[in-house]
Amino acid sequence: MNILLQLEQLNRETDPESGRVGVSLSESKSRFRSKSTFYPTHLRDNIVNMFQKNVETELSLLHETISDLPSRNNLTKKEKRALNILKNDHDIVIRKADKGGQIVILNKSDYVFEAHRQLSDRETYLPLEKSPLNLYASELDALLQEALSFNIIDDKLIAFIKNDTPKSAIFHHLPKIHKKERPPVGRPIIAGIGSLGENLCEFIDHFLQPLVLRLPSYLRDSGHLLHSLNNYQWNLPNLKWASIDVASLYSCIPHDLGLQAIEFHLNQYSTYDSNFITFLLRSIYFLLTHNFFYFDKKYYLQCRGTAMGAKFAPSYANLFLGWWEELHIYNDNNHFFDNIQYYGRYIDDIIIIWSGTDEQFNDFIKYINTNNYNLQFTSEIHHTSINFLDITLSTFNHSVTSTIFRKECSANTLLEATSCHPRHSILNIPYSQFLRIRRVCSEETEFMSKSTDLFHRLLDRGYPKKNIIKAFERAAAVDRSSLFDRYKTCDSKKSKYKKNVHKKDNASLTCILTYSPQLNMIEKIINNNLTILKTDPILRQILNNGHRFVT
């Protein structure tokens, strides 16, 4: 199996007439609409008023009943006291670890020092004297109004993209405790929830996604990798596992090269017309050059790369590397092409099956590190097995074998069985976790070993032993090959994308509720009063299609 086969497969999967992919703007418009505040009061009648009054009265009675019940705190006095001490200690910072799910407590001085160390990189971050929010908001408005004048977008889309009360994005970093440095270095994150460009990021990402999915190196997750290696025959001499990591991918991409990469994919492989492509490129340029944030009473502008935390950042980074791969991996310029028997990539993590010597692989790494894209690669090569994402890959009898891989710093992050979540969700967690092990572990002995480990972790989180055993037996009975069926659509990039496009379900009415332990009683109150609405012929016809409750 050579990477030539990946290219041939891609040619079969794209549009045979044009080789292009994309999504329709007109069909996507319903995704990008602001929440309506319209309420048709003129359509209300006595029947609707009676229904509402009865439901509200019964809900009030339920609230009074619940309020009278004795409450029980799920924290001990010592735990509450400890939390208050930590909360009021302004000399520490509490963050989730970058990987492994651990909670990390750092000296605030060390945390701030690491942040300033990163922000002192003047090629990536530029200090600002004041917030540019108002200026940038007017520039975004000008960009949108120009697109409106050319009928590229409409008023409703502008209303979605614009945020009337935008907030500044906030910089923080996640400690990389899996690395050797102490105090740990941090992974920079720019949290842009409610920021000026948040909705524009979502819009851009929607139209870049089909281009990402058509990349020959694209890996959706570790399950997709296992599916792609399912029938691989490890029968050539001198085969080895290799992994490559792109250093600081999100923050290393020069704006001009990033835009050049996106323009290449849009022009070469998309179905979008020239006006829409221009709007997408100008929007991406705006997001890249107006990515400002706040940290420690100062404003900064990111002048290289994209923010890790921006909705479109993974697509942008994926397409940048996809452009580089097309020019330097899947290309005659790559003199090591025949050595690469398999090549897959999950964002910035690359896995290779290498045919050749270690010295040849080192020469290949030197080749890819000699570039004008500001890309730097680190690598590992292994003769027998390799850890990649959350799996360990090895070989047996000329076939690829796999098992679960957990980092030493990994915590037990399974949801507590006593957590205030829908009961069916909690009860399904053991089964879904055993099913994941069933899919990843190719050998029965590994399945049993990893299941034993999971069994104890579930017990530690308060799951009943009987339920755990039942979930294990249920997962063990599943045919492992059937667990890869969902990845068959991954092999057809267009099919997978269509599968993920939201389709409105008109079959029944949906009542969206916030979960509470009283959810069943709330549903019962509403259901009992639906007979009032059904006295109206029109409402009865609507309700006859059924309804459902979603939390």
Automatic annotation (TrEMBL):
<feature type="domain" description="Reverse transcriptase">
    <location>
        <begin position="155"/>
        <end position="400"/>
    </location>
</feature>
<dbReference type="Pfam" id="PF26215">
    <property type="entry name" value="HTH_animal"/>
</dbReference>
<dbReference type="InterPro" id="IPR000477">
    <property type="entry name" value="RT_dom"/>
</dbReference>
<protein>
    <recommendedName>
        <fullName>Reverse transcriptase domain-containing protein</fullName>
    </recommendedName>
</protein>
<dbReference type="InterPro" id="IPR058912">
    <property type="entry name" value="HTH_animal"/>
</dbReference>
